[in-house]
Every structure is written in C-alpha cells, then in structure tokens.
Automatic annotation (TrEMBL):
Span of domain HAT C-terminal dimerisation: 455-527
Regions of compositional bias (Polar residues) in chain numbering: 398-408
Alphabetical list of Pfam families matching this protein: Dimer_Tnp_hAT
Biological source species: Cirrhinus mrigala
InterPro entries given in the database record: HATC_C_dom (IPR008906), RNaseH-like_sf (IPR012337), ZnF_BED_domain_contain (IPR052035)
Residues covered by region (Disordered): 398-433
Protein name, per record: HAT C-terminal dimerisation domain-containing protein
SUPFAM superfamilies: Hermes dimerisation domain, Ribonuclease H-like
Length: 527
C-alpha cells in the first residue's frame, strides 16, 4: 500500500491522450488475441494495470465494445478503398456451425495490388438464418458485393466446396448479368479429398486402414500401453513420437496415421507381444504382415499427394495456374504403372488416375477452362507441353481474346493517362509534324505487327522464373501490358476454399464456451 502511494506521488497524472491510447491497445489485444471482452473485469487483469499504470481506470465492457465497433468501421473503410483501387476480385465462401448451433457463412476476398502483391481479407461472417439453398446463398453473396461496392466487372470467380447447393449457386451466378463474367471454381482440396477417399475404399486398403484405426485406438485409450510404448521406443532407439488417430473426412490424417505406424512398427509390436502389458485378448490387434505391406504401399503412393495438397493451399501464390499441370504431371510421372509395383500399388494408382480424370474432366476438352487460362499466363507452364498442337492453339486463342477484351475496356482511361505533361503542352502543328515524320520513318509493317503480338513474344520469352509467377509479372508487366491485365485477373483466384475454412478455426476461438452469448453482429466484427 505504501509503495503504491509512493508510485502515485512520483508519477505525473495520465493525460487524456495517453488514456485513449491505452484503451485502444486493450481493444487491439482483445481483437487480435481473440480474448473475451469480459477479460477487463478479471482480477488479474486489474492488478496488472494497477502495477503498470496506477492512474489508469479500466474501461467498462460497453466502452471496449464501442472501441471494437469503431475499429471495425475504420478497417472496413480501408478495405473498401483497397478493393476500389484493384482491377479484379475473387472470393471463397463456406458455411459453418457455431457452439450455439447457429449457421454462419464466411466470405473472403482476394485481389492483386498494383505491385503484384496478393491480398486476402474477410468480408463477412454472418448468420445464415434461412435454409442453405443455392438461391439464399447467392442472395447473401450479392448483398456482400453491394455492401462492399464491388461492381460486376471486377468479380472474377467464387471458389467453393463440391456440395450440390454451392455448385448450383455458382451456376446461378454465372447466368446473372449483375455478376459480369464471374465463374464458379470447385475447391481443389475438396476434389482431391474425394479422389483419394474413393481410392482408399478399395480392398485390401480399406481393411488395412480399419485395422490400423483399431490398433491406434487401443493405445489412445490405454495409459499403460502408451507408457510402455515410450519405454520400448527408448530401448530400441526409435523416435519418441505418439501414434496418430486419423479423421475419416481428412485423407491426409489417414496418411499420417499409417506413416507414423510404420515408423513405430517394432516398438508397437513389442508392446502388444509383452504379456505383462497387453492382455491375451488384445494381442490380435497387431497388424498382419499383409497389412504392414499394404500400409507401406499406400504411404508410398500418397506421399507426393501431401506435397500437392500443400502447394494447392498456399495463400500467397498463384496456385490455380499450377493445379492442372501438377495433376497431369502426377498422373504421367507418379501414377504410371511399373513392372515392380505390387498388386496393391497398381490398384491404388489405377483408381486414383481414374478419379482424377473423372472429377477434373481431364479426358474432355479443357483447353478453354479457367485453370488452363491461368496456366498459360504462368511462365512456368505457358508451353502447355501436356497438350497437342490443336489444344494449345485453342488455349492461346482464349487467353488472347481475354487480354484484348480487358484492354478494350480499359482503353479510354489508359489512353488519357498515357499522355505526358510535355505532350499536353505541345501545339497542334508540332504534333502533326511528328506524326508525318513517324509515317515516313515507319519500319516494315510485318515486323511492326509481330512486335504488337504480345502473346507470341510472351510465349517465346525465355526469362527465368526465380520466385514464382507474381514476381515474374511484376518485373515484366511493362513488356506485356495486355497480358498483364489478364494475369492480374486470373492469378488472384485461389485454387482452394482454404481461406474460408481457416476462418472457421479462428471463429471457434472467438465463439467459445466463455463467449457463447455473443451477438451474431459482434461475431462478424470480431472475425
């Protein structure tokens, strides 16, 4: 008490400016760290501020909520301005259910800045009170577009999962003139999940996975078995890793479960065969030799798929352009059947290749698809080596038409902007004189036309791609201005709906048991 009084005497009183700054930092702390607003009522929080700033009075909950609302409105204004300054915006959307059993829909926006930096923002996370029909979802998306003042010509694509209502929703969007030329893009992550799930259901792989789940489940339920496993790991000098239980809706968790079991095979077998640790009735949980061999084959085939999924889910790179080239390379180089392959490996590869062909329609004419358009404008894949000559010409023609149409739309503005101050001040006779000189000194028309053909020059360009397509376009935009507009439009589309799904995890921290009474409007602001 005496020390606290001395501190109060020694310290000058806090200015109003300083008090406002501290309150703003508390608001930031609650928003960024996803803390309950009631944290300001906690005894520990109050004691901390009594020590740090004895002259500061902790604000009430209403004051903090007012600060959060003010910060939300400011952030929203900044975002609206950013979107107005860009040329194209793509979106991802998905729905989730809160702890209160309220259905929310999240919408994220993705666009390219002038300097080719990819930006991602959450536009909205609001309760979808109506049934989740395609029409209702489309209406909500249209409301978001209006609220953030995003015109139809800027809307490029909506990335979504493979649910029937979302597929129908994007079909309605494609037929709605107010959405411009916006397309629906199925999430590559969900599609890959469907492909691999179908392959894992084939025999004997499904029986091997079922046996592995029972085995891992035994160790997860038995403290004695888990402790014994740690001792066996030390004795056998094996990495002290815990076994992984998979989730049936996530194929990568099944891969990690099998991979970890193979790593821990001998310690696990030692625990199960020890009569002092494992009951006689539970010793049959160990995998058979055939199961272990099937697990090895499955892990070997799925391993490159993990890398593929990671590359597709990257937020800050042009993953859409790489989707089909990577899938086709996967089929041609990894899923090709070899003489040394086991029957299980051959069956798994065959099923995966068939599912990829079907779900991505690789056996049909895909030369004009949005994936291929993006691939043409990615200098890593522009040669389209996996296509024949006729398909390549179709793809190049589609991209050329897109670039021309975008340049035509922007032509009046760009023509005006291209006039330099010096030219504006030049008298008419001088301009006419320069035009006459240019006419007399003109080079061969064919050579001039070839210089104008950006696509031919771009395809012949051997400039090295060091750090991704966006960095390449940042350096070479001035050389191919028309194609650059098309590249900016297509490279802002993510290949997965991962951005929306990552928000669900954040929202789970915000709408938790200690904040279950949060109003939906406040949930939107905090997210």
């Amino acid at each position: 008490s005496t020390m606290m009084q001395q501190r109060l005497v020694l310290r000058p009183p806090l200015s109003e400016k300083r008090k406002r700054e501290i309150t703003e930092k508390i608001v930031d702390f609650i928003a960024l760290d996803m803390r309950p607003i009631n944290v300001v009522r906690g005894d520990g929080f109050k004691e901390m501020f009594e020590f740090l700033e004895p002259g500061y009075t902790i604000p009430k909950r209403d004051t903090i909520m007012h600060g959060l609302t003010s910060k939300f409105n400011t952030t929203k204004e900044i975002l609206v301005k950013k979107i107005q300054s860009c040329t194209a915006v793509s979106f991802t959307t998905d729905t989730w259910t809160s702890i209160q059993s309220e259905g929310y829909m999240t919408v994220t926006a993705h666009f390219m800045s002038e300097d080719w930096q990819l930006h991602s923002f959450v536009l909205e996370t609001k309760v979808l009170e109506e049934s989740h029909t395609a029409t209702n979802i489309k209406e909500r998306l249209s409301e978001v577009m209006e609220e953030f003042k995003i015109p139809g010509e800027k809307r490029v694509a909506v990335v979504h999962d493979n649910a029937a209502n979302m597929v129908l929703c994007t079909e309605l969007i494609s037929n709605d003139p107010s959405w411009g030329n916006a397309k629906g893009v199925c999430c590559a992550g969900h599609t890959l999940q469907l492909c691999i799930n179908a392959a894992l259901k084939t025999d004997p792989i499904c029986r091997c996975i079922a046996a592995a789940r029972r085995l891992v489940g035994h160790f997860k339920k038995s403290t004695k078995a888990t402790t014994a496993l740690t001792h066996k790991q030390k004795q056998q000098n094996v990495a002290e890793h815990k076994l992984i239980q998979d989730v049936s809706t996530r194929w990568n968790s099944t891969y990690f479960m099998l991979e970890r079991l193979l790593e821990q095979r001998w310690p696990v077998t030692a625990v199960l065969s020890d009569p002092e640790i494992t009951k006689r009735s539970e010793r049959g949980l160990d995998l058979t030799t055939a199961h272990w061999l099937t697990a090895e084959d499955t892990v070997a085939v799925l391993k490159p798929m993990i890398t593929l999924a990671e590359l597709l889910s990257q937020d800050l790179n042009a993953s859409l352009s790489a989707t089909l080239p990577m899938l086709i390379n996967m089929k041609r180089r990894h899923l090709v059947l070899r003489n040394e392959d086991s029957p299980t490996t051959k069956a798994l590869k065959t099923e995966l290749a068939k599912e990829i062909d079907t779900r991505w329609q690789l056996t049909e004419n895909i030369a004009t698809s949005i994936y291929i358009q993006a691939a043409v404008l990615d200098p890593r894949f522009k040669s389209l080596s996996f296509f024949d000559q006729h398909e390549r010409e179709d793809a190049y023609s589609t991209v050329s038409d897109l670039a021309e149409s975008l340049s035509t739309e922007a032509a009046p503005e760009s023509d005006h902007d291209s006039i330099s101050p010096a030219e504006e001040g030049e008298p008419e006779p001088k301009k006419e004189k320069q035009a006459e000189i240019s006419m007399l000194m003109a080079i061969d028309e064919e050579e001039h036309a070839e210089e104008k053909d950006e696509l031919k020059m771009y395809l012949a360009d051997k400039t090295k791609v060091d750090s991704g397509p966006l960095a390449w376009w940042q350096k070479n935009e001035h050389r191919y201005p028309k194609l650059a507009k098309a590249a900016k439009r297509l490279h802002c589309i993510p290949s997965t709906s991962t951005p929306s799904e990552r928000i669900f995890s954040k929202a789970g921290f915000i709408v938790n048991k200690s904040r279950s009474s949060l109003l939906p409007n406040n949930v939107d602001k905090l997210v």
